[in-house]
Amino acid sequence: MLSDLGAAALRRLEPETAHDFAIAALKALPLPAALADDPLLATRVAGLSLSNPIGLAAGFDKNAEALHGLSRLGFGFVECGSVTPLPQPGNPKPRLFRLTQDRALINRMGFNNTGLEAFAAHLSRRPAGAVVGANLGANKQTEDRAADYVAGLRRLAGLADYFTVNISSPNTPGLRALQGRDALDDLLGRVAEARTTAAPVFLKIAPDLTCAEIATIVEAALAHRIDALIVSNTTLDRPSSLMSGDRDESGGLSGAPLASRALAALRDAAGAGSGRLPLIGVGGIGSGLDAYRRIRAGACAVQVYSALIFEGPGLVERIKRDLAARLRSDGLESITEAISAGPLTER
Length: 347
Ligand SMILES: Cc1cc2nc3c(=O)[nH]c(=O)nc-3n(C[C@H](O)[C@H](O)[C@H](O)COP(=O)(O)O)c2cc1C
Prior knowledge:
alpha/beta; 12 helices; globular; binds flavin mononucleotide
């Protein structure tokens, strides 16, 4: 509760300043350990055992510097990054906007981060017991983008429990073009060659893709031994329902207005994969029901970011409690059973 009050106080600050304070607080405060998870919530993603399916999405801890604090908030896994080989400042500020009325954010951060060496040093001091993923990006100036993902994979081998190849951030010009079949085959072929450890590699895609494009990505992912698909990143779409003054800022939209689009993309991926490729659902998840709906649509885990800004870190425990209650009331004994039960019928 105290931390939710802290989050409310932070929302009075300019969004990026608030983010920097949150990271500083997570590094400095002696947080109590999270409660033990309800065994019903245990799940597996591509061989990784998670005590619960609620993860922190990439972009909050870009430099892997607050992992000790984050590991105490009750997440089943934490994804840090995106990290690029070289440090880079990202886009000019302001570049993060809070659309409070819409429970949404728009960001055009542009992969601001302190680079691979600092990231590796932080990861080497990561907390024991936490499941930590490293989300890999490409520097803005790099011509051979695939080489940047390969560099990330090589430098961080043995330091992360899984890797995410992020080709879906809208704020690095040309990055999303890597989702096209030829570019993707080249990238994923080189990623497959660079793998030296058993750590699974995930691919994170945009929600702004047609069903046919998603089907093509699923086939490419399977052909190149990608272990799971993360669906999805932020959207370039601006739903007409947006009410906040900053709705026309350029960048990626996340939070509540992304939920239906991200769910639709997840369903497309589930249809194309037919159980062959594990899925992680992300985008607009802010409640136990949202998480449950993604799991019933085929996700073995989910991730959250924007809703934490509006609700505070206590949201993680609330989502888990509500999700467990929903599984029980539907007579389901595990996340796997919930996936097998098929899509939740909308009422
Ligand atoms: C400020 C901000 C920065 C982000 N940075 C990254 C990033 O570096 N890499 C990445 O893969 N996704 C990044 N994301 C996208 C999130 O990981 C997530 O996919 C997206 O926000 C949708 O989830 P949400 O609606 O729960 O926020 C970022 C999102 C926000 C709001």
